[in-house]
């Protein structure tokens, strides 16, 4: 769905604004992986709040989707969608001594985007068949719940996985245990291929999520689930031939 952009603030001459629309009194800087700046809140107190390092990036330095520029969208804070799975807080940014015209959505290009890049977990190289399989993880602590209390149950559930459960339609409860279930949430077009969006759920919370293509070994699927559960990250498996 394409959002109609709503401006968080409109103060001429500003440099950075926080996700709540207050003026940063210093540059937006990285702070433990997040971007923050010092600002004065409405009660006159000095605080560190989320900001964006560049126009239409979130507070982690990730690029907002083209159809979801940084805006309020009915909330009390600014945010944008990063992809179909996640969103992030963001703040408006001045470009070339002019406050960004939110309606135009000017794009800033830089070699220093400071995006949150996926982490390569492992690479499997099948030289005999000339196939390379890459496991990558994208941290998602806001979307993937800490499932530590279900660790033993989750490991047993994952151990029961077979690829017979993959199908053409989204379906819940592919495999179940006392508290957990594996759902096929649907399919994603990635690299011009069909990928499966598989999640382990407890009630309506996700404790692991993997995005996988067709025809990969079951042991890779189980490995991806375990990595996602342990890291609270989305794990992608990509296969290429050489």
From TrEMBL:
Taxonomy, superkingdom: Eukaryota
- Protein name, please? Tubulin polymerization promoting protein
Q: Which InterPro entries match?
A: Diff-assoc_signaling
């Amino acid at each position: 769905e394409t959002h109609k952009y709503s401006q968080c603030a409109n103060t001429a001459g500003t440099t950075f604004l926080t996700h709540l629309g207050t003026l940063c009194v210093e540059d937006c800087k990285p702070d433990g992986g997040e971007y923050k700046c010092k600002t004065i809140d409405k009660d006159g107190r000095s605080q560190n709040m989320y900001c964006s390092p560049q126009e239409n990036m979130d507070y982690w330095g990730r690029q907002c989707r083209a159809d979801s520029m940084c805006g309020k969208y009915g909330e009390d804070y600014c945010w944008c969608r990063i992809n179909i799975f996640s969103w992030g807080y963001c703040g408006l940014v001045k470009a070339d001594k002019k406050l960004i015209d939110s309606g135009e959505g000017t794009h800033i290009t830089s070699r220093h985007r400071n995006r949150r890049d996926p982490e390569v977990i492992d690479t499997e190289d099948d030289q005999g068949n000339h196939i390379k399989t890459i496991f990558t993880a994208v941290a998602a602590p806001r979307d993937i719940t800490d499932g530590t209390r279900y660790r033993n149950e989750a490991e047993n559930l994952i151990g029961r996985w077979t690829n017979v459960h993959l199908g053409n339609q989204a379906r819940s409860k592919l495999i179940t245990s006392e508290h957990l279930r594996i759902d096929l949430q649907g399919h994603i077009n990635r690299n011009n291929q069909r990928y499966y969006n598989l999640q382990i759920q407890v009630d309506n919370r996700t404790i692991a999520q993997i995005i996988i293509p067709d025809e990969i070994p079951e042991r890779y699927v189980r490995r991806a689930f375990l990595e996602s559960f342990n890291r609270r990250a989305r794990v992608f498996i990509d296969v290429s031939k050489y």
